[in-house]
From TrEMBL:
Protein name stated in the entry: Uncharacterized protein
Naturally occurring in which organism (per UniProt): Chitinophaga nivalis
Superkingdom of the source species: Bacteria
Length: 69
């Protein structure tokens, strides 16, 4: 099932921009996120986010498989 994914425009302290799915409790506000599109996996969404921000990472809560930690 495809989900809509967004990347945060806000840089985290480690330099990453987090990628969140549409259902994430930590999804940034509308003004602080960029819509990436619909993807089958967070990996595809993170790869797409890297077109905008070279340091992109999956949210540890909604996309833990794509989180570097």
């Amino acid at each position: 099932m495809k989900l809509s994914y967004y990347v945060s425009k806000i840089t985290q302290m480690n330099g990453d921009h987090e990628v969140h799915d549409q259902n994430c409790n930590y999804l940034p506000t509308f003004d602080n996120r960029l819509y990436l599109g619909q993807f089958e996996s967070c990996r595809d969404a993170v790869n797409d986010a890297k077109k905008y921000y070279s340091e992109a990472d999956g949210c540890q809560f909604c996309s833990p498989d794509c989180n570097k930690r």
